[in-house]
Amino acid sequence: MKTIEKMEQTHLQEAQAYVQQAYEAVQKRNPNHVEFQQAVKEVFDSLVPVFAKHPHYMKQAILERLSEPERLISFRVPWVDDEGNIHVNRGFRVQFNSAIGPYKGGLRFHPSVNESIIKFLGFEQIFKNSLTGQPIGGGKGGSDFDPKGKSDSEIMRFCQSFMSELSQHIGPDLDVPAGDIGVGAREVGYMFGQYKKMRGGYEAGVLTGKGLEYGGSLVRKEATGYGVVYFVDEMMKDKGLSLQGSTVVVSGSGNVSIYAIEKVTELGGKVVACSDSGGYVYDSKGINVDTVKRLKEVEQKRMSEYVQEHPHAEYYEGCSNIWSIPCDIALPCATQNEIDEYSANLLISNGVKAVGEGANMPSTLEAIDVFLESNVLFAPAKAANAGGVAVSALEMAQNSQRLSWTFEEVDAKLKAIMKNIYQDSISASEDYGTSGNLVVGANIAGFKKVADAMIAQGLI
Ligand code: NDP
Predict the structure, then answer these.
(1) Which of 275, 277, 338, 340 for mutating ligand 1's site (highest number of atoms within 8 Å of CB)?
(2) Which residues pair with 87 in a beta bridge?
(3) Ligand 1 contact via 35 beta carbon (within 6 Å)
(4) What predicted TM-score, i.e. pTM, was given to this entire model?
(5) Smallest CA separation from ligand 1 atom 5, residue
(6) What is the CATH number that goes with domain 71-203?
(7) pLDDT in tens, 320-344
(8) Helix, strand, or coil here: 81?
């Protein structure tokens, strides 16, 4: 017995040393890429029990291979505004890992976009896509272009210029981009048109998130928000809790937030607050999702205008204080690192029971530690927001078959996928001695499939 324990201890130490050395190499090779380093650290640390149990992964230098993108493309995007002035932005596409399928991941248009942000998102996407059970690899892209305040014609010219270059690097069996922050159905439409023109053929499966008239899938628009709520519902039910009757705070008011608010409301919860980058609204009667949809999806207005139609609601400048509102469930659905250690502690002292990450990496590493240590049910982004890319994969499947499934069919598949992701993540956490820790469980479940496929395909 003593010998077995000693052997296990030795394997654990070797695994810890390997992970530490691989992480230091990532830091050295990617100096100043803080977001990328943060994402890598979270994944690497959670894989220690896998390496202790299966040391062959270490011999395969699997972390070194996984953390280096297969390809990173950076390109110039020149465009002309309505006054005839010339602007130049930078475009990116990271093709991170194609072990289990074509690269798949969204495009983000936001002034904060840089190589580090794109690499952190692309890296996370590898594991998320693997978790969905769909045959899709990991990628991500975008530009530091700011769509705010731009006319429709300016958006179109930018998208066309962006796609003129990107079209040389993507394809339905190679790399399939979609939307993300700043990229919705309008932008996908302009980019699809330009791709078609550049390639001279109708390759419907080259982009997902398309309009329903030309190959889009029902439920894609709703998928990430609905998926987060399906996941949280499953996680709560598993622990004997219920979403019904819960008070919920959702940050953001974009694509993910709107459909998370809609689904929570449908399932009997009450969302009392949401936000945009200017500030947040508190509505004790429950956020009216139709108003938010109209303000944000149709009129492109600010959340501050919500109170004009709902005078009993209150608007506060600045968005981080949204986490001071007492709630049972917190759904951060805006952007990375929006919940820090302070906000996490505030949520706990106000009695939060569950946190579901709709955005990518919305909690800092310190905030995650706070949640895990206080036994709050914590649904990490990689698992909880995978519904969007899962339905994107279903869109690709429909495009290949030249068929369209009904809303009910796609929604049922989405619900089943979210349930599976929860089950796979919780089982992996139990198998590796970290019962109930979904951060570790999701990373391990996502990792193993990709790592095994990479090893099976040889050193390429
Ligand atoms: P949108 O552009 O539709 O919405 C983003 C929302 O977040 C907007 O309301 C925006 O406000 C708000 N926001 C941005 N920065 C801040 C900030 N610093 N503080 C508060 N609010 C902020 O993006 P999505 O909804 O598509 O994406 C949101 C998150 O979800 C991102 O992390 C994205 O990567 C992730 N995600 C999205 C998926 C999808 O299918 N769309 C899939 C998986 C993950 P404003 O209007 O003022 O800019």
Answers:
(1) 277
(2) 79
(3) no
(4) 0.95
(5) 254
(6) 3.40.50.10860
(7) 899 999 999 999 999 999 999 999 9
(8) coil
